[in-house]
């Protein structure tokens, strides 16, 4: 396979790096095909960059991975550390997945790494996530940094990131039902896949887990002599008097309440703090304090600022955005919105678009009795999205008044006819792909 130039001619309005993406997407008929064989082959041809990485903190789980990584990054950077970060999926631009020593990768650097991986692959079958992960590892190996925060893409055992032999610590955020086509139909099976990132003798920190998930993780940890630190057992994280308290054998930290909104972020922040402590990184208390205030993670209960999209809503309407899409995510979001309702009461309107692989009923159930109404919309550019009518029907089964609209913009326009009373609080949710489209349309680009 000939490798085209990363900076060659491109279609008008199209970034040159997107031409490389198009070629890489054609290398495998499936977007997801969990295996490490292709990854090992390519890494060998690239000179094993996975063996030349900065110290790694490896993060798996179903919900809260991105927020936990965001907290760790904020604390480390507050301590003056240079931090690489790998997360997925991106919201608006692919570059969001790769942060090199504090900055999102630029197109030129990204194109060069992708071209090297493409050349080394020699046209052999490999998934898009695998070859882009290999490209990221190449950059992480070559750009100096103090720590690499490496987030699993899907599962753990066969994920393309699971090529690191000795991380500082492994982190598993709460496990719940999601991606059943690839990881299993029960929380036990899914937890077993997530636990595949555990390494012999390497400590692991676990977020709060369902009993079945915890047992599955503990079984693998026992086989590998992995010391476990479990939230709710070996360490605690809770809110007290508007502060975050994290307590473990090393002592108690009294920190500012996390900047990220929602009760679930107390757990995520506590997990991040404990992971850094177990990793043996000696950080000043001031770094943890600054990190809690500075942490930012787009589309996680993000209050949208002024932009072309939010200006479609009537004056006074609060517009929030979250990429939640599974049952546990729905529970966390509903709890967060109930907390907001307790502080300032407003009618809650959900604008929801979901993929066909997600259980819309399970996601929406926690909003019964909380949401005044739901407006179902398509997910732009996703042919596998659920029809809005199906999402609306799922909402109606839970007693939520539901309708459809052709777009988020149209749904916001329709609020101009809302009954007299306090302006509603709007939550746009159901899919990270929908969240990315909303951020792009509103000009709220992650940086």
From TrEMBL:
Say yes or no: keyword Membrane present. no
User: For this protein, what is the EC number?
Assistant: 6.3.2.12, 6.3.2.17
The lineage's top-level taxon is Bacteria
Which pathway does this polypeptide act in?
Cofactor biosynthesis; tetrahydrofolate biosynthesis; 7,8-dihydrofolate from 2-amino-4-hydroxy-6-hydroxymethyl-7,8-dihydropteridine diphosphate and 4-aminobenzoate: step 2/2; Cofactor biosynthesis; tetrahydrofolylpolyglutamate biosynthesis
Residues forming the Mur ligase central domain are: 59-234
**Which chain positions lie within coiled-coil regions?**
none
Names of the cofactor(s): Mg(2+)
Residue limits of the Mur ligase C-terminal domain?
315-431
Which keywords describe this protein according to UniProt? ATP-binding, Folate biosynthesis, Ligase, Magnesium, Metal-binding, Nucleotide-binding
Reactions catalysed according to its record:
10-formyltetrahydrofolyl-(gamma-L-Glu)(n) + L-glutamate + ATP = 10-formyltetrahydrofolyl-(gamma-L-Glu)(n+1) + ADP + phosphate + H(+); (6S)-5,6,7,8-tetrahydrofolyl-(gamma-L-Glu)(n) + L-glutamate + ATP = (6S)-5,6,7,8-tetrahydrofolyl-(gamma-L-Glu)(n+1) + ADP + phosphate + H(+); (6R)-5,10-methylenetetrahydrofolyl-(gamma-L-Glu)(n) + L-glutamate + ATP = (6R)-5,10-methylenetetrahydrofolyl-(gamma-L-Glu)(n+1) + ADP + phosphate + H(+); 7,8-dihydropteroate + L-glutamate + ATP = 7,8-dihydrofolate + ADP + phosphate + H(+)
Q: Name one GO cellular component term.
A: cytoplasm
Single GO molecular function: tetrahydrofolylpolyglutamate synthase activity
**GO annotation terms (biological process):** folic acid biosynthetic process
InterPro entries, per the entry: Folylpolyglutamate_synth, Folylpolyglutamate_synth_CS, Mur-like_cat_sf, Mur_ligase_C, Mur_ligase_C_dom_sf, Mur_ligase_cen
| Function recorded in the entry | Functions in two distinct reactions of the de novo folate biosynthetic pathway. Catalyzes the addition of a glutamate residue to dihydropteroate (7,8-dihydropteroate or H2Pte) to form dihydrofolate (7,8-dihydrofolate monoglutamate or H2Pte-Glu). Also catalyzes successive additions of L-glutamate to tetrahydrofolate or 10-formyltetrahydrofolate or 5,10-methylenetetrahydrofolate, leading to folylpolyglutamate derivatives.
Entry's family note: Belongs to the folylpolyglutamate synthase family.
Q: What is this protein called?
A: Dihydrofolate synthase/folylpolyglutamate synthase
Tell me the organism's taxonomic lineage.
Bacteria, Pseudomonadati, Pseudomonadota, Alphaproteobacteria, Hyphomicrobiales
